[in-house]
Amino acid sequence: MTAEEFRALALALPGTAEAPHVDRAAFKVKRIYATLSKAGDSVNLNLSPEEQAHYSHMLPQVFAPVPNAWGARGWTRAILQGADAQALAGALRAAWHRAG
Question: pTM of the entire structure?
Fold first, then answer.
């Protein structure tokens, strides 16, 4: 998946707006639920710890906890290149649902 494809998926979710956030692009409804790296090679998703464990176990080559305190709260990094589009879309929708 490309950064442009991810951006289109995120912006297609109802109520989503894109805004700058530090050095990333943030996607939010009431709260930020996803950020896209400046390089466009990865995203961080605000999943529940249970969702994070599920996706990280299912596709460990794509999903992993963010390596800091945010990761312990469910923030999960996903590598875009070679990512299964259906799994990434499902994780994105889960993050969007939590934020709304």
Answer: 0.95
The ranges assigned to domains in the chain are 3-99
The answer to whether 40 and 80 have CB atoms below 8 angstroms apart is: yes
Cβ proximity of 84 and 76 under 8 Å: no
Domain 3-99 has CATH 3.20.20.140: no
Q: Rounded to 10 degrees, what is the CA torsion of 45, 17, 2, 20?
A: -80
Rounded CA-CA distance 73/59 in Å is 19
CA atoms within 13 A on the CB side of 76: 27
The pair of structure tokens assigned to 3 is: 């950064």
The tokens for 9 are 């998926």
Whole-number pLDDT of residue 62: 97
pLDDT, tens digit, for every residue of 32-78?
A: 999 999 999 999 999 999 999 999 999 999 999 999 999 999 999 99
